[in-house]
Amino acid sequence: MGGTPSGWWGAFPGPKVRGITTYMLSPYELKANHNLFAKGTFNMFRRVVRQLPYLVPAGLLYWGTLSYGKKKHDYLSSKAGHAEAEGH
């Protein structure tokens, strides 16, 4: 390849190789984002709203457990927490 362009990806210069099968997609199958802004935004909003009953309780449980753990850790790391743990 010294100094000559190697061609587009997969189309390297040189003799044809026999026994290799290539596949292509139809141009109609390549339009994955065809209606992304027209229908995709509403569809994403609808899916997120449908998942809220599952996400909100889990998020609240996580937030409550985390805040309780932080408060308990701060208390046990304080002077009063040390005194309580030692039984004074």
Automatic annotation (TrEMBL):
Subcellular location(s) per record: Mitochondrion inner membrane
Chief site of localization: mitochondrion
Matches recorded under Pfam families: UcrQ (PF02939)
InterPro entries recorded: Cyt_bc1_su8, Cyt_bc1_su8_sf
UniProt key word Magnesium: no
An example Gene Ontology CC term for this record: respiratory chain complex III
SUPFAM superfamilies attached to this UniProt entry: Ubiquinone-binding protein QP-C of cytochrome bc1 complex (Ubiquinol-cytochrome c reductase)
UniProt keyword list: Electron transport, Membrane, Mitochondrion, Mitochondrion inner membrane, Respiratory chain, Transmembrane, Transmembrane helix, Transport
Keyword Glycosyltransferase appears in the UniProt entry: no
Subunit structure comment from the entry: Component of the ubiquinol-cytochrome c oxidoreductase (cytochrome b-c1 complex, complex III, CIII), a multisubunit enzyme composed of 3 respiratory subunits cytochrome b, cytochrome c1 and Rieske protein, 2 core protein subunits, and additional low-molecular weight protein subunits. The complex exists as an obligatory dimer and forms supercomplexes (SCs) in the inner mitochondrial membrane with cytochrome c oxidase (complex IV, CIV).
PANTHER family, per the entry: CYTOCHROME B-C1 COMPLEX SUBUNIT 8 (PTHR12119:SF2), UBIQUINOL-CYTOCHROME C REDUCTASE COMPLEX UBIQUINONE-BINDING PROTEIN QP-C (PTHR12119)
Family: Belongs to the UQCRQ/QCR8 family.
Name by which UniProt lists this protein: Cytochrome b-c1 complex subunit 8
Taxonomic lineage from the root: Eukaryota, Fungi, Fungi incertae sedis, Zoopagomycota, Kickxellomycotina
